[in-house]
């Protein structure tokens, strides 16, 4: 088992990463809880809920709620019914809320934990690759119909217990999605790691390599958030690929493209802007080949309507005034933030969408 310790502005917490950790919760947990409320989703529950319930000791009263799988559950309605459930169960300040699932469950359960009784303890048990990113850093949120993650708060877990064995039941699409954020962390930090990823076929990654990628990813995220928990400076770099990603998710619908797939394509666009505006020399072609080799939905790029997409970006909460702020790369490991006008952005995006002549088909 690997343990990383993260210092947030609210607390200090451990991230335990290893195989089979879901069976060792009662040994790993730092405190005892009389009442535990597990929030999970309808895909994760059939595989792991029973095991996790029985991993808590007999002295603990464990309840659970299964929300429908999918981004639709990060809603006001679902949030509200979970709060009803917390009250029904008479959870108090000494209770623990557990997020057993991917980033969706983590964000939703975390937001419940951050607001119920002004905050109760919260344990993250990530079950996706993508959740290596979402489970660390203390951002929790639900969606509004105007956009993703518009209602939320900063709230750190008391601990993260990451059992890498559960990745075994993820679909290829979700593996691809998770690696979108892994690629982001590699590009923000380390040329060699990025190269290693470019030599990787995602369906062939073994447990040992997976643990390395996840641990490295968590380290990058942790270093950035430790330096800047409230997103004033450095943390903005973690938005690499995300400005276009959020627009793509909204444009094509939450069913058509996953968050991490959208991020992977958003990163390609950020590379294009970096080349055209700050003259960076980045591996645009080899990254495009890697995306295609691993079946990222590049065909959607040719369906992008630049003007509408730029309009959508302005709804994104990273917009300051009229200019859209983009995280670019001067080189691998060296991010920077640049403001771009609508006009410039539409011009580069038009180019991006059509000039690759067949690349995205
Ligand atoms: N808080 C943050 O800092 C942060 C960062 C990045 C992303 N996010 C959020 O995370 C969400 C995306 O996370 P995600 O990609 O993990 O999505 P997700 O939680 O929706 O999981 C993806 C799919 O995989 C299923 N699943 C999860 N674990 C499984 C397992 N072990 N075996 C089989 N199926 C499994 C889920 O039921 C779901 O259908 C988005 O809501 C995004 O906004 C938050
Ligand atoms: Zn993300």
From TrEMBL:
The gene is aroB. It comes from Halobacillus naozhouensis. The keyword Nucleotide-binding applies. Its EC number is 4.2.3.4. It is an enzyme of class 4 (lyase). Its cofactor is Co(2+); Zn(2+); NAD(+). It is found in: Cytoplasm. This is 3-dehydroquinate synthase. Zn(2+) binds at residues 181, 242, 259.
């Amino acid at each position: 088992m690997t343990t990383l310790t993260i210092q947030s502005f609210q607390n200090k917490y451990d991230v335990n990463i290893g195989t089979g950790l879901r069976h060792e919760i009662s040994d790993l947990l730092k405190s005892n809880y009389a009442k535990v409320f597990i929030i999970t989703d309808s895909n994760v529950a059939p595989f792991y809920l029973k095991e996790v319930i029985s991993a808590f000791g007999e002295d603990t009263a464990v309840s659970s709620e299964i929300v429908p799988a999918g981004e639709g559950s990060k809603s006001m309605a679902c949030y509200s019914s979970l709060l009803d459930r917390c009250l029904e169960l008479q959870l108090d300040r000494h209770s623990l809320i557990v997020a057993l699932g991917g980033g969706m469950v983590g964000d939703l359960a975390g937001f419940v934990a951050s607001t119920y009784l002004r905050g109760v303890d919260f344990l993250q048990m990530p079950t996706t690759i993508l959740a290596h990113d979402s489970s660390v850093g203390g951002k929790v949120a639900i969606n509004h119909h105007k956009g993703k993650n518009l209602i939320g708060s900063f709230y750190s877990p008391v601990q993260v217990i990451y059992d890498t064995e559960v990745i075994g039941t993820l679909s290829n699409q979700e593996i691809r999605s998770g690696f979108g954020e892994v690629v982001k962390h590699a590009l923000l930090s380390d040329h060699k790691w990025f190269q290693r990823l470019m030599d990787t076929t995602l369906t062939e990654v073994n447990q040992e390599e997976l643990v390395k990628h996840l641990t490295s990813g968590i380290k990058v995220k942790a270093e950035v958030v430790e330096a800047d928990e409230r997103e004033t400076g450095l943390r903005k770099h973690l938005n690499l690929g995300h400005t276009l990603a959020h627009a793509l998710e909204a444009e094509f619908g939450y069913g058509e493209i996953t968050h991490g797939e959208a991020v992977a394509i958003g990163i390609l666009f950020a590379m294009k802007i970096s080349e055209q505006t700050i003259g960076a020399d980045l591996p645009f072609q080899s990254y495009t080949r890697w995306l295609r080799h691993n079946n990222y939905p590049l065909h959607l790029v040719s369906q992008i309507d630049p003007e509408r997409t730029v309009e959508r970006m302005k709804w994104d909460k990273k917009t300051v005034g009229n200019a859209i702020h983009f995280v670019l790369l001067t080189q691998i490991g060296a991010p920077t933030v640049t403001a771009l006008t609508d006009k410039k952005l539409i011009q580069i995006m038009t180019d991006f969408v059509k000039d690759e002549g067949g690349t995205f088909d």
